[in-house]
Amino acid sequence: MTDRVASAFEAQRDRLRAVAHRVLGSHADAEDAVQEAWLRLSRQDAASIENLDGWLTTVVGRISLDVLRARRARPEGAYEEIVVAADDDPAADPSANAELADSVGLALLVVLETLGPSERLAFVLHDLFAVPFEEIGRILGKSTAAAKMLASRARRKVQPPPVPPSGRGQREVVQAFLTAARDGDFESLLRVLDPEVRLTVDTPDGVVVVLGATNVAAGARFGAAAGGRTVLVGGLPGVVAWRADGTPLSVVAFTVVDGRITGIAAVADPVKLASMALPEPPR
Fold this sequence. Notes:
Layout: H1 3-24, H2 27-42, H3 52-70, E1 84-86, H4 106-112, H5 117-129, H6 133-140, H7 144-157, H8 168-183, H9 186-192, E2 193-203, E3 206-211, H10 213-218, H11 223-226, E4 229-233, E5 236-242, E6 248-257, E7 260-267, H12 270-274
């Protein structure tokens, strides 16, 4: 391999890592995908590659697709990098955590878990990195029209809410919600929920999505969470609840915009909870 090709790869490394990380939600898996792409390039006749950037994107995309398909046997890996810290912990401060700005938030991760591997890849590559559908089709082994359809189908499922920085006012809104849920105060719940709020819960049986303030308030079962420990989940106000035996029951993250909760993302799958680094339960 020539120095020119090696330099060209290094110039693309950060972009390739970002693509893989957004597709996979894991820094470790993204690094592995980029390293595998480097190994494949080292075995390739570089002179035969007309568009090195496109070739590398295709290779990283196919490697990431294989990882997504294999992850069905290791679903807990999706959440192992979500930063969960007590809100009095310096690690809870987004400005104190360099990786947090590049993290995939819990709300988006939970929704991405509802997508099939091909949908997820098509959505991330096109909507987040503007990769042309023709190129996405080649990665997936499908037509351009099929790639467009996959991304469109994914887009209907994925509506990531805005993620403002956490603050005291947002935590007060979340606490008001938890108190109202614990007390069964339906009217108070409606006052703190945005009319278009979206609740996504990753359960052992799959992801459950509930839309709208009335539906979320009617089905709110956050009594255990109200007695849990307040945390920041990927920089968002949240709460961790535990069972009586000390095993985690749920991790919940709230998105608050203009004084109302617009998104609630929760993980209640014991297998996935076990992979997350959580604070100790209160004694």
